[in-house]
Automatic annotation (TrEMBL), chains A, B:
<dbReference type="GO" id="GO:0030246">
    <property type="term" value="F:carbohydrate binding"/>
</dbReference>
<dbReference type="InterPro" id="IPR005194">
    <property type="entry name" value="Glyco_hydro_65_C"/>
</dbReference>
<dbReference type="GO" id="GO:0016757">
    <property type="term" value="F:glycosyltransferase activity"/>
</dbReference>
<dbReference type="InterPro" id="IPR012341">
    <property type="entry name" value="6hp_glycosidase-like_sf"/>
</dbReference>
<dbReference type="InterPro" id="IPR008928">
    <property type="entry name" value="6-hairpin_glycosidase_sf"/>
</dbReference>
<feature type="binding site">
    <location>
        <begin position="357"/>
        <end position="358"/>
    </location>
    <ligand>
        <name>substrate</name>
    </ligand>
</feature>
<protein>
    <submittedName>
        <fullName>Glycoside hydrolase family 65 protein</fullName>
    </submittedName>
</protein>
<feature type="domain" description="Glycoside hydrolase family 65 central catalytic">
    <location>
        <begin position="322"/>
        <end position="687"/>
    </location>
</feature>
<dbReference type="InterPro" id="IPR005195">
    <property type="entry name" value="Glyco_hydro_65_M"/>
</dbReference>
<dbReference type="Pfam" id="PF03636">
    <property type="entry name" value="Glyco_hydro_65N"/>
</dbReference>
<dbReference type="GO" id="GO:0005975">
    <property type="term" value="P:carbohydrate metabolic process"/>
</dbReference>
<comment type="similarity">
    <text>Belongs to the glycosyl hydrolase 65 family.</text>
</comment>
<dbReference type="InterPro" id="IPR011013">
    <property type="entry name" value="Gal_mutarotase_sf_dom"/>
</dbReference>
<dbReference type="InterPro" id="IPR005196">
    <property type="entry name" value="Glyco_hydro_65_N"/>
</dbReference>
<feature type="active site" description="Proton donor">
    <location>
        <position position="488"/>
    </location>
</feature>
<feature type="domain" description="Glycoside hydrolase family 65 C-terminal">
    <location>
        <begin position="697"/>
        <end position="759"/>
    </location>
</feature>
<dbReference type="InterPro" id="IPR037018">
    <property type="entry name" value="GH65_N"/>
</dbReference>
Length: 768, 768
């Protein structure tokens, strides 16, 4: 099943109604502003299959853990993204029949997400069971300009009758999470009040004191003229509404506008919540829908100015990349270091938690390149703020003396995950968090961040690695036993090459940073050493590990081995496997997957991708050519890394194949699960595929390199990348690469396919 | 917390009341007869902590699986041992106050399980809140002579008053399982009827059509005279009772006797159930309590005649071994090949399922030695009957062509377990099932069983092994990847030595059996080959595996390695580990346990135990001395194997230490979980410790060997083993070993500490 959206460079359009596509469309057409977000549910009643969801960033529920077999060390809860007050709802009655598209004859259907402007519109013509025909128009957005505000403009036009229309404009806090472990209601009522044209619902989460208030102001018009229809005022448990009843003639347009302010006690005192939301909601109403919309569009316009990628000649690719960028930008806006990028963003509930290693490994490069440094810095600060929790987490697993293990999944720094082979063993995530510090520093030159905060994080992580390895007498080297690498189709293996690699790298990097602080930030050095209670023995121990770490390697093949004894497996390329076996995770039992050679996502290759400069082209080729053919890419995070490495080794066809798998994952519902929500974090991988893959862009300390690769069958024969970090615009065609400075810098050093150039910001642009 | 029972050679006695000990005592004092069984709950109301449980062998509930993270291949349900109609219940009211020991002042308390006779008695003197003092006497048993019958004799004597006593003698089907995954009620009502002095409750399990009827006949007496007190007849949903109200004088004894017949549609047509149970219940009542009890005691007397072990001079050891034998004998009586030995027997619900590899690896030797061959044979037939399900189970995991994987936990042959590292990977269980066929055959000489049934089982298992291994190019040998050995403190390891060993042995044994059938049972050979659709290539493939299997081994240490790369671990003996770390499974997170060297239970040593004759004494010593010091014995199945091997290598102190750990596990609540029920299957291990361990008894085809070892600090300086198989009585003291023939055989060849003797059954016994 997929939702057959139309191709368009800037819009996602569904021009037909199919009840089976509704839930997928709800995911794809989701809107948000980093603080609030929601699935594209219909405003009016809908009796068909739907997953209603409105979410508030950072407000979660610690849902009691559900496991079959408890393991010592499991967390007590899994933090769930919390479905909260439904604020878009408008129940409509046409001459006593409830409007419900599932029960109408649809005459015309048009649903559009305008990504340029961040606006969701719907135009439907339909015939009710009472033979009344109407035209429905709905437009809504969640304001990028004012983060508490969402607005709906919703109208009904009778097409073949004069009659009565009622609108019930409501707020409803009687909502549940479809992924609740024990079918609990997560919200307690605090208060609700309904007045004429106004009302609010205030609720508090159970267990944790998150308080949320939504305040609604409604306006009724007929043919754009405000109508003084006295609404029927309803007030129930966690529910308020105004019911407007009006008689309209055929062709007249009856319309309700809703201006809703929603915020939580994360941004206000409890006692201020009501006043704040009321003021914002009333003012929004005063300003009016059009003015709010304009302000919202202006923000989107500025956003696109720094992040757009243009692909000529391939609308599917163009739509795909813009959809990915749009979702990332509306999921995380980077102004609150307590927030992060949930795997489903605001498009669904599944998986819970807000933070996975995806943030550091995939998303940070995207935000660094498309936003100001503060956005990525806030993602680093998020982890720094949670360092104490990471140390506690490591202590639960027996580590001591400030060793930090960041959680697999978290909201507030506490581990939520409860699958031992992941929770306790997929520890490579810790390395990605250190890697991101380095990446940020390399990218921005902001070593001051390392001195003030980053060093604490990487020392904590290094201490973890130093305790996690042990010295093998048999090998006379350090080994790391019992881990799960990025390839989750192996569990509890010894000496996963990638984990050993990133652990050793972290130790080296931390030692380098400490040295640099000592040498170049001497004023800070003692403070840092004292703050961290850092001991000289740690230097020695870490150096000893760095120098004596074991890395599985096969001389004959010239490849790093994913783990000890990997070559005991039967190696059979995926292409030789009968297709009926795929996807493995639906067709094979877990043990069969584990003992097979098949790889879910880049593992050794993830390490080669991260530390590319350490390996010569031959090594990269050998490893790629050994591992990619046995990789099934059943993680949404897999194809992008393979695209980038395939581009690197000039395997343009493979790069293109991988790009296809990543770029329209949700739009084309490749994984058959888009109804649960979109794969937000892997969308950063699509962006990486173009920027690091096809454009071959690498940001160095003093210049930027490009090694573009355009596959032969690439329809988008010309693409442009807006690249904020150095105010560049990069244009890659089959003929070559053009780079222009958009504003700011006078000169930028670039290397294109090995040739050095100096870019001069004059008019016209000069390349020297 | 433990339940402080008194030491006694034949009885378990609790001579005081402590509310904290009640649940443990309920487990320890459990009674059963192989068909019915129950925890030692009080008959009357009890408001303190209690786990009420009455169980019916073979009647179970497929409780919907509960897991955190679903893996492809997991079963849909976990078969739960089913709490069923409470048939012992007698509510007592003394002058309008409900008798409830939790609310009384206990003046005297005596609870006794007489293991010789299988009788549970209770004598309590107490003062109620209304200051009335009474003496309560209760005696009950579940008949070994008539498997449907349970009887209770329950009396109250007023000690300091004349007054009114009411007894409500009831059957109550409104019961739940405390281990229900989703708090479901497992039973549907079919019917209930109550009459004067009689009544029944008939119920059916949800999901599966198990129908159960309990029929009750009650008799009221005062001072042993039958009283014609017209009871108040109560009938409610799944509940019937007769309420007797009588006025008694101080010192008089008011008594109710309950005669309950319970059976299921596993033994009757649905339509016959009511009639059958009514007839049995009424007849039991007619026969009377004393006559029923006598018949019951007679069966126990015969049973003890063939299984008792006498230990002079150590009452704790004597009580321990008899408790273990008693529990085994009342859990499984071997007359129904659809039944098996649940891990908690009739003493609790935990773990569910009835069948684990414990049956084959531990219990079969016990039943073979203490009962007629039919009992062990029925345990083999149980697996033969479930072969089709084992083949289906293997198919779910991708195996083909008749490969069979027996489940980890089952009731009816279907896998119930849902933890991938166990369910899918702890496949060594399959080997134990083949091993039991060989053990039975070696023991009984009954090769005809192999020809008719056993061969099908071992061929199915061999096919599984042949598909489960793969040829490693790197090692140029066969390997077995991704398994969990008996030591569950390692998961998903490669080349677990024990699993490789038992797999290879199974192939060899199966080939040997096929050869023997061909040569010695030629009439059957073609039938067998056709029935199994056996191919010649299978011979070749299996032989190739047998000849080219890889076994991890360390030359330097001279030990078999538990798995690949075991020596990468840090090896630190348990004795050098700070005690605060123990038990590991409560103190350490799972990953820490996994990467440590610590072993839960015998693994390599399990293999050496099974195939002892293949290894010389030096090899056994080296392996024992390497592995035992790093074994934490956190499985109840561990100490016995170590006791046996320690005895073998004359490490008497270690053998004695291990015996202490196994023999009073539940009586002394070593694992702090006896309130959940007793560890039934590991009780066979205690028996093995004495018979195979201290006595060093090995049954050979043509003789029996003894290599007794008595540890210096062994208080039981003289013990006798009744050993049915050859009608022997073995007596081991520090001075030597005496063996006498009890009956039957004229001569038996025995070897004692390497010296051969011929035992002649004359009077007096002659040793030649």
């Amino acid at each position: 099943m997929k939702c057959n959206v139309k191709l368009d460079p800037w819009k996602i359009i569904l021009d037909h109604y199919d009840e089976h596509e509704v839930e997928i469309a709800e995911s794809l057409f989701s809107i948000g502003n980093g603080c609030l977000g929601q699935r594209a549910n219909f405003e009016e009643n809908y009796s068909g299959r739907t997953l209603r969801g409105s979410y508030i960033a950072g407000v979660y529920y610690p849902d009691k853990t559900r496991v079959g077999w408890w393991k010592n060390g499991y967390p007590e809860y899994f933090a769930k993204v919390l479905n909260s007050t439904n604020w878009i709802g408008i129940n409509v009655t046409i001459d006593d029949e409830i409007l419900d598209l599932a029960k109408c004859t649809i005459l015309n259907y048009y649903h559009e997400l305008d990504m340029k402007n961040g606006v969701l519109t719907r135009n439907v013509k339909c015939r009710l069971q009472n033979d009344k025909e109407i035209e429905l128009n709905a437009i809504r957005f969640i304001s990028m300009a004012q983060k508490e505000v969402g607005a709906v403009r919703y109208s009904i036009k009778p097409l073949n009758f004069d009659g009565n229309i009622t609108f019930e404009s409501y707020l409803d806090g009687n909502v549940v999470n479809s992924d609740s472990n024990y079918d609990e209601i997560f919200w307690n009522r605090i208060d609700e009040k309904s007045y004429e044209n106004e009302g609010y619902v205030m609720m508090e989460t159970k267990k944790l004191p998150f308080m949320v208030c939504s305040y609604l102001t409604s306006v009724l018009t007929v043919n754009s003229e405000k109508v003084d229809s006295k609404p029927n005022v309803i007030e129930k448990d966690k529910f308020v509404s105004d019911i407007y009843s009006i008689d309209v003639k055929k062709g007249e347009v009856a319309q309700v506008e809703k201006f809703v302010a929603t915020t939580s006690n994360r941004y206000s005192e409890n006692t201020e919540l009501l006043k704040k939301t009321k003021t914002i909601s009333n003012k929004a109403c005063e300003a009016g829908f059009d003015a709010l919309l304009e302000a919202h569009i202006n923000v989107w316009s500025k956003t696109w100015n720094t992040c757009d990628i243009t692909i000529d000649g391939d609308v599917a690719a163009q739509q795909g990349i813009r959809f990915n960028i749009f979702q990332l930008m509306q999921t995380y806006t980077g102004d609150d270091s307590r927030l992060n990028i949930g795997p489903k963003g605001f498009t669904g509930e599944k998986y819970g938690g807000s933070t996975y290693w995806d943030t550091e490994a995939y998303c940070i490069p995207f935000y660094l390149s498309t936003c100001n440094n503060e956005v990525a810095r806030n993602l680093l600060v998020y982890r720094h703020n949670q360092l104490d929790k990471a140390i506690e987490n490591a202590e639960k697993l027996g580590f001591t003396d400030g060793a930090a293990l960041y959680p697999m999944v978290t909201m507030n720094g506490e581990e939520c995950h409860n699958e031992w082979e992941i929770t306790f063993e997929e520890i490579h995530r810790n390395g990605a968090i250190a890697y991101a510090v380095d990446f940020y520093e390399r990218y921005t030159g902001d070593f001051q961040y390392v001195v003030e905060k980053g060093i604490d994080v990487i020392v904590g992580i290094s201490r973890f690695w130093a305790q996690r390895v042990n010295f093998s007498k048999a090998k006379n080297q350090y080994v790391m036993l019992g881990v799960t690498g990025p390839n989750e189709y192996e569990n509890n293996v010894n000496n996963n090459w990638y984990t050993n690699k990133i652990a050793t790298w972290t130790l080296k990097y931390t030692l380098r940073c400490l040295k640099k602080i000592k040498e170049e930030y001497a004023d800070y050095y003692n403070t840092v050493i004292e703050r961290l209670n850092f001991k000289n023995e740690e230097f020695e121990k870490w150096n000893h590990i760095v120098e004596n770490m074991y890395f599985p390697y096969d001389e004959e093949l010239g490849v790093f081995l994913q783990q000890d004894n990997f070559l005991d497996k039967e190696i059979l390329p995926v292409k030789d496997l009968n297709k009926s076996n795929l996807p493995l995770n639906q067709k094979w039992s877990w043990d069969r997957i584990l003992r097979s050679c098949y790889i879910k996502q880049a593992d050794v290759l993830q390490g080669i991708y991260f530390f590319e400069d350490e390996y010569d082209m031959e090594t990269i080729k050998k490893n790629f050519n050994f591992y990619e053919p046995i990789t099934v890419h059943e993680s949404s995070l897999s194809p992008c890394v393979h695209n980038i490495l395939a581009s690197k080794i000039d395997n343009a066809d493979k790069a293109y194949e991988m790009y296809l798998r990543t770029s329209r994952l949700d739009l084309d519902n490749y994984n058959n699960d888009s109804e649960d929500g979109c794969h937000i974090t892997s969308m950063a991988g699509t962006w990486l595929s173009i920027v690091q893959g096809f454009a071959g862009m690498r940001v160095r300390h003093n210049h930027i390199e490009f090694n573009p690769t355009l596959p032969d069958n690439w329809n988008g024969y010309n693409f442009k990348i807006l690249y904020r970090g150095n105010n560049l615009q990069v244009s890659v065609t089959k003929e070559g690469t053009d780079i222009s400075i958009l504003e700011g810098n006078d000169t930028i050093d670039v290397v294109i396919k090995g040739e050095s150039y100096k870019l001069v910001n004059s008019n016209p642009i000069k390349i020297q």
